[in-house]
User: Fold these one by one.
Assistant:
Number 1:
Amino acid sequence: GTAIPFQLAAQPSSSVEKDIISNNSGALHVLEGRERLSLDGAWHYILDPFDVAGRKPKARRNFWENTIETPATGLIEYEWNSSPRMMLPAAWNDAEERLDYYEGPVYFRRLFTAPIEAEKRHFLHFEAVNYAATVWLDGNLVGRHEGGFTPFSIEVTDCIRSGTAHSLVVRADSRHGPKTLPGLDFDWKNCGGITRSVSLLSVPRNFIRSSFISLRNSQIEAAIEVDGDAGTSVKLNCPALGLTLSGSAGEDGKITLSAPAPDNLKLWSPDDPHLYNFTITCGNETAIEQIGFRVVEVRGREVLLNGKSIFLRGIAMHEEAFGAKGERAVSEAEARALLAEAKALGCNFVRLAHYPHAAHTARLADEMGLMLWAEIPVYWEEIDYSDKGTLALARGMMAELVRRDSNRASVVMWSVANETPQTPVRTRFLRTVIADVRRFDPTRLVTAALNKNVDVGGVRDGESIITVQDELAADLDVVAINQYEGWYGKRDPREIKQVSFRNGYDKPLMFSEFGAGAPYGNHGPREERWTEEYQAWLYEETLKIIAETPDCVGLSPWLLKDFRSPRRWHGRFQELWNRKGLTSPEGRRKKAWFVLRDYYRNIAVPKG
Ligand code: GCB
């Protein structure tokens, strides 16, 4: 029988000792100067809602074979050239009205011709395909990838010929379940497809797969991974610092170069987001990376940036663009608009919820001076935390994210999860992911958004003292809590005045979420749920509580902009939108926006 080419690649073993991040050769870095042929643009597509081709391959519907019917082939029940087209990258839900809530497999095809230099190596590079991708070149299966938000590269050196038209077919399957990440249930729209850029990267025989350039213990350190021959020479040069580092790769392709940080080194910070140009040379390839240097650490219950205590004036956001339709933010301009709105609010910090955002977002934050929280979609309880494959998937995703953004000074925190259940299997699962991150990246903090909030009562009658209790807190640098006093929960919202928070851990504490829903322009008394006045009042009350919470190092309220969610059913106020945004879908600012802006303005350059 014909092998079904759709099952996922065998997952790596999930033994705790195995270091997925270091062993994962991962996607190539898309560096400025690297030879790149864009494969974005118009692709044909074929829908297969019943997954017929996937389950029962047969010549007349093996779309990846790209066959044109002739008398010899017999019936071929598809025809690429006459199939509809879609401009990629895009979420198919946004590109095609009829695919608005479609979840399932879609096949995409484009033809391309590449000018090929014989001695080069070639990689198909995908910045993201949501969710599971299967890739064929000229009918041959060349690779698979699972996970909707992280990059992957597939080497096709032996398949590419100069001047020949190649057929590239990609199957994107957006179905989700208990063994995918995110799992069965999540509060945002599932947008399938080739949602970020595709390209053909061409590199010399020996080339730099990744670099991790950072400031550690007063040293500038570059951990380089060369793909190719042992002994390949590597050179890094930063003219502004008068710094040249060079050496050659070891047997495993790895090399670490370092030098004492020069006295004149200007550190990166939100107030002065200074970046240095590094030229990276390997073989006959020269690429450029922009690097900011900064030190983020925890001391007692404080977070320090470059040795000084800081307060994270944050906001959370989804990767969804301003505009009436709530489309996925695909372009750099859309990402910039979102970050600019955070800046206008007075933020120095953005929580990128709940999955890796595009690579350009962190690059923009580097330039604009925003610290970032970057997260993988280990979200809520409907995930099989006991499944080895799911754990391997989480580790792989984290590895892909950490490796992609290792050079981004803006990223100060990795988050391994959001609101996960308090079970031993889940804790073991997340501990494994955290151990990976810590081995690879000691230059950033690790967190997770927790939500097991326990009311330990108070001294006075009716008083509530709330504390987060989660055994995972022991493994985190920053304890982050999501809490919705005054929105979810049984307590009368007016009792919010009786509530206070306590930090039960000897660590910094932050409020990673709070909020209330209000459609823009819905006005009424502040006691009335769903009004802008209610939302603004809830912000005022919560901000008072936060100001009084000991050890609070910051906040990222939920969230910048209303966003689409299939699980928000209220016919008058939601209509499949989560209305907790501080702005309307188009970016109109609600009353609460100004409450938060004023709060951030008035924080007397507090702790930082
Ligand atoms: C949460 C989740 C977030 C939801 C939000 C809500 O706790 O972390 O993804 O969208 O609550 O609006 O309920």
Number 2:
Amino acid sequence: AVRAVVFDVDGTLADTERDGHRPAFNAAFKESGLDWDWSVELYGELLAITGGKERIRHFMEKYVPAELGRSGLDDWIAGLHRVKTKHYVSLLESGGIPLRPGVARLIQHLRDRNIKIAIATTTTPENVTALLRSALGEDSPGWFDVIGAGDIVPRKKPEPDIYHWVLEQLGLPAEQCMAIEDSENGLKASLAAGLDTLVTVSDYTRSQDFRGASAVLSDLGEPTQPFTVLEGGVPQ
Ligand code: XBP
Ligand code: MG
């Protein structure tokens, strides 16, 4: 039986990319005196690179390579990214982003059944707690047995490191856990760590390659029956 469900965050718990992270990056660029502006379309392309700092560096390499000559480039990117996080967290605190359909219900269901819940994400830890607090209430970060986020592992998704870290903290083998992801990069990470994975597609990820997923769904929906599938294994 499934003893833990491991949730991805961006795109899975909530649709955070287009109207959350993207405007926060743009606000940080503006605040830092940069004339960079990431459109909805460009951002879709940049999402191939996971991690905000890594995404900024990739953008610079591809579109503004002259800027790579800045002294202390790593620290400069990290500083710019801290400004981005500040904007993103304040957007969440103003109640900006709701959870996707069925997410709150599934979390409640799992808690009722004493099935562990965990997070495995590439995004920054503060972003995760801000999202959970704003969408599920002040105490909700404490409902999660493990929250694995950001730079806690050196290699981000599609590498499996964050899932390995979460499994290790849970003290459970991959066979007793399932993952919920929304992207090809996320799916590659969870599969490589050995977790059966349910994919709920998001606007940016709809046409990606989800081979290997246990199921690919539009969202977690609002079933009239409880999630009995979680008792016997993964949904087919
Ligand atoms: C999505 C990501 C993150 C976010 C931005 O993570 O790749 O980089 O786009 O957040 P996941 P940061 O789907 O694994 O939750 O700027 O904090 O990295
Ligand atoms: Mg995701």
Number 3:
Amino acid sequence: MYARSAARLLSAQTRAFSTSSARQTKVAVLGAGGGIGQPLSLLLKIDPLVSSLSLYDIRGAPGVAADVSHIDTDSAVKGYTADQLDEALEGAKVIVIPAGVPRKPGMTRDDLFNTNASIVRDLAASVGRVAPEANILVISNPVNSTIPIVAKTLEKAGVFDPRRVFGVTTLDVVRAARFLGEVSGSDPKNTVVPVVGGHSGATIVPLLSQNAHGKGISGDAYEKLVYRIQFGGDEVVKAKDGAGSATLSMAYAGAKFTNALLRGLNGEKGVITPTFVKSDLFASKGVDFFSSNVELGINGVEKIYPIGPLSAEEEKLLEACLPDLKKNIDKGYAFVA
Ligand code: NAD
Ligand code: LMR
């Protein structure tokens, strides 16, 4: 009952959990026992487009699976232990990765690189071997580097398909809608703000000028709003005071993006959202991955949209984004090379 009500609530509030297509899919979560993994598994269990949920972690996934499996939706759920990664991946069409350590106060996302780079590389190598045609959604930070790591790892294995590797930047889009709603009075669910670039600090570029409520905001209010969108993650890290970073809002954002991808994979047209993918938009400046609006379709990335007209302030934000983003991408590449 709760699950049905929760699913109805989610779809009514966000348009994210659409059920417009009947086909269903096996989804795996790697890192399912963690702060994001647990609520994400819950939300995927109540997504009608997920037929089978495969929950893997180096600790705790069978417990999460047993718990989530009691929810009265149709999908099957199975948990896998540390030595069962291959079984967890078999037949998965979509693989969501929130495995890795989160920030503590005073850390940047790049400070997580030393630990998370090898976790993500090793998981990607297994995906390349067991489920080479799967769509891979990476949540683990630093996303600006973990995505190039996944791409290079798959490339080395000869199975990299740029249409199927996604950095999940949906939390930035969710925050932009929410924070703009707070200052302008607009309803966040109808407040679409494209957020382009990458996923950390100055690489996060909100395009407020492309929203009717956002384009009138200027001066100090504009600066504060942009800062809040770019550094929203810090707010949560600070408030959690050593206990981690955003988990609940991230689980929501991860489930929202997964549902969008599933709708695209199932043939729904016009599913468009920002995501960090291999992109030609700024490749001439050495930036091989970039988040902009992407149409999701049966093969994953269907079409990458240009970023559109920018205000003078946004031109400056983009200028600041590109060199940082390039550094983060090159660091990821160098790790795998
Ligand atoms: P957490 O520590 O609560 O959970 C991480 C989980 O990963 C743990 O259960 C751990 O056992 C598991 N894990 C570690 N190594 C693993 C491996 N090799 N295989 C499978 N599982 C493994 O952390 P969290 O709060 O869930 O955050 C996870 C990651 O997501 C962090 O890197 C964080 O920075 C990132 N994050 C990204 C965004 C985003 O917008 N993309 C938002 C929030 C957090
Ligand atoms: C976020 O944006 O909340 C995440 O990337 C987690 C973090 O470290 O801030």
